[in-house]
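Hello,

Following up on my earlier ticket. Below are the two sequence lines again, exactly as submitted.
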Amino acid sequence: MIVQARVFRNSYRDSVELMRIAAEIEALGGITRAGLVMATPANREVLQEAGLLAEAALDAGPNDLVVAVAADGEAAAEIALGRAAERLSGADGGTTADAVRTSWRTIAEGIADLGGADVALISTPGTYATAEALKALKRGINVFLFSDNVPIEDEIELKNLAVARDLLLMGPDCGTAILDGVPLGFANAVRRGGIGLIGASGTGLQQVSCLIDRAGAGISQAIGVGGRDLDDRVGGTMMLAALRRLDADPGTRVIVLISKPPGAAVARLVVEMAGSLTTPVVVNFLGGDPAVVREFGLIPARTFEAAANAAAALSLGEPIPDETDADAKADATADAKADVTADAGPHAASAEAIARLQPGQWRIRGLFAGGSLSGEAKLMLGWALGAEAARTHEILDLGDDEYTVGRPHPMIDPRLRNEHIAAAADDPSTAVILLDVVLGYGANADPAGALVPAIRDARQRATQAGRHLVVVASVCGTDADLQGRSSQEAILAAAGVILARSNAQAAGIAAAIAAATGHAGSGRAIGGASDGAGSAGTTATSIGTGPGATL
Amino acid sequence: MTDPKPMTSRLFPQEVRAINVGLAMFAEAPAAHGATVATLDWRPPAEGDRDIGLLLARLEDDPADPVGRQVADANAAALSRLLGAQPLLVDVRPASEAIGLVGRQLLHSGPPIPWNRMCGPVRGAIVGAILFEGWTSTAAQAEELAESGAIAFAPCHHHATVGPMAGVVSPSMPVVVVENAPGGTRAHATLNEGLGKVLRFGAYDASVLERLRWFRDVLGPTLSATLQASGPIDLRSLTGQALQMGDEGHNRNIASTSLFVRMLAPWIVRTTEATAAASVLDFLRGNDHFFLNLSMAACKSALDAAHGIPGSSVVTAMTRNGVDFGIRLSGTGDRWFTSPVGVPDGLYFPGYGPEDANPDLGDSAITETFGIGGFAMAAAPAIVRFVGGTAADALEFTRLMGRITLGRNPAYALPSLAFAGTPTGIDARRVVDSGIAPVINTGIAHRQAGIGQIGAGIARAPLGCFSEGIRELAASVGLAAGGTVNGHTATARSDR
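Thanks for your patience. The regenerated structure is below:
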């Protein structure tokens, strides 16, 4: 085993991009470990701990990029370092130390180069994002702010400035948007149409846009506003601005609002404004009170799917489906029953699976790449099983900072989630692994293909231990996406995965399976005694304190 | 079933134009859907200092913001004063008279520095100047005198003067007087001594002192009398011609010197006794860099005219004393912002190498500050070896400097760039935002006094002093690091 490094002086790259390249070269033959970092003191320590601080990198400074590999031999190391260099130069052609041959460096230069600009996509580290966003707004261009870790005070200032200049400040931590048919960030290729989306949630927006596409309708604009927009301190500034913008847009006939439930004051501001518009508005405040929505003449939707269906119906001039009426569907087991009648496929498969579960298998392990999708799944479990029982299951948002420090996001790189799948399979209490598979720009080129080896392996290990493992998944994407929804679904189906048409349906199926196991922790619908082993398992592997389990 | 709604929804009037700042992969999706995307080669501004980066954003040109408007207007005014400069060489006078140096006062290059921090070549030049003035009779006594505090040291820049390398000016030395009437400024520089053993590299042996006496007694008075006869010489026009003849106005001055001598020779002969005239013409013929000091004084006269405009981020001085690199901004008055100065990246005369080199030295970076020298590399294919070796490299350097300047100087047209002017008006904001450091063509001095020039090459200005300049400029217009946008505006108002 040898360790070799190459230093690229004065070459800055964002850590996300570096990790993508690291993952790629780590997959090369003969490479056991790879690290690509800016040689800050902290990163040097990381390299040191990883045993990757090669001699060549000893004098690298914070402005220098270090590529280090641990390899079986010189040849493998050379190939890997060469590949890294290739990837680094391929990104924009400006990675060598020769400062003269770089492309444009500042927003002002970029605008001059294009002869004017409409939007700046900002994905720098959060520390620097405010300054870049300010520069863009001052020059009169809208901002799509993907960066996270932007202080809320900065967000408030930026949004106030944006409103004063009649501009959009989408973010911070904004994952997706579609403006004039152009996808930004992690977006799906959806049909254009008359439905305008405004969302404080990234994968929520993606899910709604894909389900609208699937229902035959299309998107006029999709505007992300950042997860904190409806926080009391920000006051929904950008959601209100986006509402005004879309109401004035002749191409938008229906508006959908998507967010976690805001505080009462902000909720009132938003629904009041939405209620005053001429455009009909569907409101999906995930887990929020539908009464206040209805009070202002708006259409409440309990799930992303319900929001998509309602908007599609309005847009297509069809009656709004019943399922949108939250009161009539307060109980998700009813939802699950309705699903059985509407779409027998996945439920038939789950009925067959239930029969094969062993005593002691009862728990749902939701391993999510999409934060909003995991949030929706938690809500669904709560509705289906009761809050207390739902807490005994595990729904993890693996895209959360807690899991992604120093690691690529699971939407990009499957390794983190695959590790969790293996661990879940080895837990004898696991009955169902619940997954989301997000397609579109920015996502892994073949997320289903990247998951399948881990799924097969997990099922095989469970079988060897005498258990049957149920895997339920939904694919968030369209057939126009690069990955193609149908082909991704086919890959999963071939691995025995039960496929749902939406995340909400997938969670409903998982809940129904859990309920059917008869375990005490599995829901109010179930009576009778629990078996001792299951209870012990609950205690031993309690996940009630983890962030993923907070409902 | 399809959506009956026609696709008329538009936020933007035409196809989407996007700037991608950060992850390169984010350009793919919009580009695949018909958007035009410019992906920046972004890096954290101000070398990663978040506070300075925010101040930069708040100092951006912005007609809708009081600060942004002030900075934009101030810079426009500064640029117009730079471009409007008309430097004329009007006379050559003793420094005592022209600059008003009195008693035991000596000027040196670069930002202020006490004797005990000065580098070898500057100390040598100071010893030489003391001996030349006759304040002591030995070098050892001269050092003692300098050490004793009995000599008042000041930067040339504090007296509307610039000097190459050590830049030492003493009261009896003749200096050129350059007048920029539109800007209401005058600037001065010593006379160039040529190469070899010269005071500006810290040499002070008999030949050096002898030359200085000849400057005082013959060359200075001759040039003065000649200029009275010929009338003022238009340095802008002369420089403009020289830039089309292969000079860049800093490291290559052979064209400008030749033009200057051609212009002056008949008047020298008419006004001067034959032996003296011959010695003056011989000296000028043998010194390819004679015009450098005139070029420097011309640049200084233009930059001083652009100095002192509140809110302006235009750099009005870049200079080095062999220890520190210092800059001044138009909007921050007499403050110097300094960073440690490095050894230039260069080519060495045989027998010498980087280990012999003194860190970068001299006021001659005033030429780059005004947009020639390293900024005008495109004009000087003969010296492209300093910047990579090909004419294309030279063009790239000038283009690169165009990215940190506010405008182009039409008086200095560059044929190789389709007669675009030299990049003029360094904007400290752009330097700090882009991390593109001004490039400076420079001679390399031996670190020991008196050995002289051992090479030439290029230096890049250190970025730290520009960041500090931005911090001070921001404070001067009422912004403070770490506060909020709205808070800043409020502070700005209450300060006035």
